[in-house]
Amino acid sequence: MSPSAVDVDVKGVTDTTALVAPDPTTINALAAWRIKGAVPTGTAALSNSDMFKSPACFTKPKAKRWDHIISNEAKARKPSTLKGAAEYLKRPGMISLGGGLPSSENFPFEEISMKIPSPPGFSEEETRVSGRTVTAHKHDIREGRSLFDLEVALNYGQATGFAQLLRFVTEHTEIVHTPPYADWQCCLTVGSTYSWDSALRVLCERGDYILTEEYSFASALETAQPLGIRAAAVGMDEQGLRADALDEVLTNWDSKARGARKPHLLYTVPSGQNPTGATQSAHRRAEVYKVCQKHDVYIVEDEPYYFLQMQPYKAGVPPPSSRDEFLKILLPSFLKLDVDGRVLRLDSFSKVLAPGSRVSWIVASEQLVERFTRHFECSVQNASGVAQIALFKLLDEEWGHAGYLDWLIHLRLSYTRRRDDMLHACEQYLPKEVTSWVAPTAGMFHWIEVAWRKHPGFAKGLSHAEIEESIFKASIDRGSLLCQGSWFRADTNIPEDKMFFRATYAAAPANKIQEAIKRFSDALRAEFAL
Amino acid sequence: MSPSAVDVDVKGVTDTTALVAPDPTTINALAAWRIKGAVPTGTAALSNSDMFKSPACFTKPKAKRWDHIISNEAKARKPSTLKGAAEYLKRPGMISLGGGLPSSENFPFEEISMKIPSPPGFSEEETRVSGRTVTAHKHDIREGRSLFDLEVALNYGQATGFAQLLRFVTEHTEIVHTPPYADWQCCLTVGSTYSWDSALRVLCERGDYILTEEYSFASALETAQPLGIRAAAVGMDEQGLRADALDEVLTNWDSKARGARKPHLLYTVPSGQNPTGATQSAHRRAEVYKVCQKHDVYIVEDEPYYFLQMQPYKAGVPPPSSRDEFLKILLPSFLKLDVDGRVLRLDSFSKVLAPGSRVSWIVASEQLVERFTRHFECSVQNASGVAQIALFKLLDEEWGHAGYLDWLIHLRLSYTRRRDDMLHACEQYLPKEVTSWVAPTAGMFHWIEVAWRKHPGFAKGLSHAEIEESIFKASIDRGSLLCQGSWFRADTNIPEDKMFFRATYAAAPANKIQEAIKRFSDALRAEFAL
Q1: Tell me: domain B163-384, CATH 3.40.640.10, correct?
Q2: Where would I find the Aminotransferase class I/classII large domain in this sequence (chains A, B) (predicted)?
């Protein structure tokens, strides 16, 4: 049934000398370890990242244990009895009347094809000309045409994800982040919002506080609040979360006044933070990690915008000259710094391929990924097999790691252009007397500060909230929608000193961005009587 | 952008007189109300089932309110601030720099095609000959080719599901179940296991008991247990859950002895129950509903096997002569009996199309579906758009309701053949001295009772568990895997009087089923020294 290891085709291998001297941090070395292991291709076959990690991983020290922060709910989860019985299926000749899996003859999809871009022709126009159509059939595995097919993808799968895609995601994680401990694992999920919901349930109890940026992703806060989990706001600067502010909150934590134990979990968006667009420098990340070590805080890094790190905001900077250079100029993730195994990375295809895939993954130490897997088994089970096989065909069979990195470079340049369009419009239109901003270096958000105390209403006693709402409405009336900064406040008990509006450059085309900023500018001029 | 109402093509309309005299319970009437409403086709457009229900629905009384059973977690959920801002997007000419939705130019799928069966040629062989290939392009909506496309499906969507598929599911629900109250709603989810996990979080508190069959779906129990929710076992007979036993448990509930309030939630699988294969008759369902009314118990009906209701187990029964006859011979769901709006129906494509779609839906009163929607917004967000558009192309654009019912009839006959193969094998091989069973009328499970007290070990003092394990192992040693009945016990504190093994006829081909039953039979003969 399962093609042998040597059938595995390794895309993107441009330097075969790497096969001799494997370096796990480069894609050229991939062939060396990939070729050693076959992919389990049976229906609902078990797999884990260890099958796909390079040998170098296993020489590193193991992660710390996190028993003291695992929730009562997560502690109580046991492996499924029925899934345990699957062990017996490995015996040769065993016939199973056990699991209630439908027969693939009753899946009404014989083939699924997709037309996808051929690197380097990534644009819609180029794809129309040079795009390739790839097809998944129902029985490609049996017929030796592929490692993955509809018979498997359309049936039930394991919570960790289908081995075929888990392999790609594991390799990608090693290439980009090279975690500095041995027993890290990936597990596919159904989107980072769900990963975060699960993280709260696996790592927190009702009544806990979590630490997060003073302006934080609204949905992340709204996910925590109904679970009885409150946010302790940590001060920010133009690099996002401040390590000194984090230390201060933790050092001065007053359990009695707060009515809660000292927080043990930091939620942070290190790159292109939502809503501020701020990006933590490499130095800042190391500082934050050190503070988390000092106070034994576990880190959840939510990194949808990691590959939306952009070119510097100045003319004439050439794009990365190679994939290796591209990888080198990326900021280190917390996972890359994670000597303790104290990081849960929420990774996602939503901002780099398509949100509608609803396929994402987490990376953490084996102990925690095992608890998350038990959690997923009794909730979402696994990400859609239709989406998983589409991503496998695209990423593994067609593009390979090299093609995917090329795509990410293409995306970097595309977002750089969008960001530049936004900043040019702001420079052209926004009244400098009352607005200021820092050019974003990652993500999809531009965070515009408004000097609200210069608003005529301020002298008349209008509140921060009233002035913010007035500006928002004035912009709406002129046909331009930006988000109010106050919508993103982690702790609404702390009075707001500054005022911000969030504008995204991800969606609208350049001329619309320009027009929307012009309208917002008109609204500001009217409001501030400029 | 959005095609007008009259562009909507109604598949499966064979009787145009129905357009004059609409009867909401038949598919022929569908055109009459479908044609009245356009489908919202914008990116992440809001929709709900009311847009797609027949006018007759709204003349019925409204559901009861369920404030008294909604959990603290669910009560605390608020509508998203950011999603609230989307209201402004309806204003003509508004440019949004609000939501962080990626631009579709960066989705690397230009087209997705699928080869699917053409009714009535549903088999794999027929599909190879007469199957049709249908294609979703990126901009079909803009270009007037379809109501749904990849630009929309691959972006973020609403938690309720994309309107295009929500419409089909709503119509299907009305055709099959015709809920007897006005304000029912459907909401797509990512599989019934997740719907159940959500139901526990929306409707229960830690420490609660739920009511369920004494042998119950193991994963459903494993989902409840880590949330601190225990199962109160209700006695069963060959029709599954006993109404009198349910009344007894509720009437004699001793809150002090149990350490929990009287249960307010029943979890039941009415058709082809897992693991017993039992199916509640129409009369039984009405009795159970009445007991639930008496004790104000809310019902969760988990119905993955509803359309695996089979032909009677006797030779020469002709298949349903028409779609109308097929609909008439289906047992009434609890939803169909639900005058109070006290039923949450968990519906799913897993057993009738493909589990790998990870697309399912719930039906309940508006009040509860609204709470579930808030829950999904902060967890899974929405089912995969890739799977949703594949199902839309198949079900709505190609098959229509008529074709889908034809498929379900095809499946009914296919499962009837499989069930018959299983029963023939059992009749041929199993030792009658120690085995007995009831022919299943729905689902994928055959529940075999073993007269364990006749086992030689019984006289020697071996326990129920030891004898069950011994038989299980003896069968494994002969290469046949069946599930132990005890794996499915709702309350392990109650001593087991009987002994069962569960065998599925869903997956293995006929000759393998025969061989596996033969091996199990050999194991029994050896164990019982027959």
Answers
A1: yes
A2: 185-520
